[in-house]
Amino acid sequence: MSDRLPAPGGLALVEALVNTVDLESGRDALDTAEGRTPFGIGERDLAQARELRESLRAACLAHAGHPPHRAVTPLGDLLARAPLYVAVDARDGSARLTPVEEGPLLSRVAGAVAQALTEGTWQRLKACELPDCHWAYYDRSPAGRGRWCSMAVCGARAKMRRYRAKGA
Ligand SMILES: [Zn+2]
C-alpha cells in the first residue's frame, strides 16, 4: 500500500507488524503461517499479537495527532509486561536498553521502541489518517508533518473526497 522505504532500525519490525492487516479488506497476514514467520509467533500467540498491533497503530495515529481508531489496550500497559534493562558494553562503555527476555515479540517490540527513543525516531512512525487505511509509515518529511502513507494513493483519495464534499 506504500512505496515508502521501511522505517529505520528496529522500527521496521513495528511498522511491519502494524501493516500485517489491510483494514479495508480485512485480510490479515497473521492468519497464515508464512505471514507469522517474520514475527516468530505461532497460532497461540495470535490474540496477543493482534492486541499489540492495534495498540501500536493507536500510538502511530497519536504521533500524527489523531485519536485512536478504536478502543485499545494502552501501549504502555502492554510494554510494561516486557521489562528492559540497561546493558553496558564493557569494551567501549556504550549502553542500550535491552529486553530482559529476548525472544517474545512483545520484548522485541519494547526493545525497538527503546532504540527508537534514543535515536529520536519513535515520533516519526505514524499511521495514515484515512480511516480505511491507517497504514503505518515512517515520516521522512523535513517538517515531520506527513499525513498519508502514500501521497499518490491516500493523499489523492483524501483530496478527491474533499473535492466531492465541496461539490455536494
Ligand atoms: Zn493510507
From TrEMBL:
It comes from the Bacteria. Residues 124-166 form the Zinc finger CGNR domain. InterPro entries: ABATE (IPR010852), ABATE_dom_sf (IPR023286), Znf_CGNR (IPR021005). This is CGNR zinc finger domain-containing protein. It comes from Streptomyces chromofuscus.
